[in-house]
Structures are given as C-alpha cells and as structure tokens.
UniProtKB/TrEMBL annotation:
Keyword presence, Transport: no
Stated family: Belongs to the Fe(2+)-trafficking protein family.
Function: Could be a mediator in iron transactions between iron acquisition and iron-requiring processes, such as synthesis and/or repair of Fe-S clusters in biosynthetic enzymes.
Keyword Magnesium: no
InterPro entries (UniProt xref): Fe_traffick_prot_YggX, Fe_traffick_prot_YggX_sf
Transmembrane portions of the chain: none
Family annotation (PANTHER family): FE(2+)-TRAFFICKING PROTEIN-RELATED
The entry's keywords: Iron
Name under which the protein is recorded: Probable Fe(2+)-trafficking protein
One Pfam assignment: Iron_traffic
Amino acid sequence: MSRTVFCQRLKKEAPGMPFQLIPGELGKRIFDNICQEAWSEWQKKQTMLINEKKLNMMNADHRALLQEEMVKYLFEEGEVQIEGYVPPEQK
C-alpha cells in the first residue's frame, strides 16, 4: 500500500517514498515531507550537479555540498544553479 505525504517541495498531497532512502534526521524529514515526484526531480538535478561540478562522492566536502543543495531544493524552494545549463523551455 502506498503512503501519501504533503510534499513540502510541490505543495500538494502525493505518493510518498516507500522507505527512508537516507539515514538519520534528514532522511526522516525527506521520508515524511517529500513525495516521490519531487525526489525524482531532485535526483535529476543531483546528477547534473555531480557532473557539472565534478563532485566525488568519496569526498566529505563534496557530499556536504550536495546535501546542502538537496535541503535547499527540497525544503527551501531553492533552484539548483547549474552553470551553463538552460532549461528546455528557456532556450
């Protein structure tokens, strides 16, 4: 059975994650407040960010930067700024 959450990113009721994807407090916050659709959007942004900034997930500073961007994107209505990337609708 799927669970519904009020998604803080998309400001609507939507299917939530089937399980907590990230350990700890932040993971619980995402599990409780972010829907699958918003998480999927974040994952696309995350991939672009990792590629753009050549982040190494073995590097603690890089992981911290990515986590900071994730919190901004999911909870603070921030947009991920990716240098040189123009969203398709703005071309």
